[in-house]
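2024-03-11 09:14:02 INFO queue: dequeued item Transposase, len=106
2024-03-11 09:14:02 INFO validating residues
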Amino acid sequence: MTRQRRSFSAEFKLEAACLVLDQGYSIAEASRSLNIGETGLRRWVTQLEQERGGSTPVSKALTPEQQKIQELEARIHRLEREKSILKKATVDSTALLMSDELERTR
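2024-03-11 09:14:37 INFO prediction written
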């Protein structure tokens, strides 16, 4: 029988990492009390330290500020893709109109 992988919300991860960073629990103590793996908790603690240092994480952010930054970066990326598509469409339609005009003048 396969054991299903548990998933945790960003809020839970943040609270768990805060136990270690802010309240002085060791990773072993916090992982035992929360019934989670030490490796996962260690990763969350490292990520929270990086976020507090100003780094935007690669994975889903824990802090609300970094979550907002990730949302805004995703929006910027989407808008840049849309702009690129529109720019290409404009160039293509301009070239098509110019070729039609050339055909009519001949």
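2024-03-11 09:14:37 INFO annotate: Residues 64-105 form the longest helix (42 residues).
2024-03-11 09:14:38 INFO item closed
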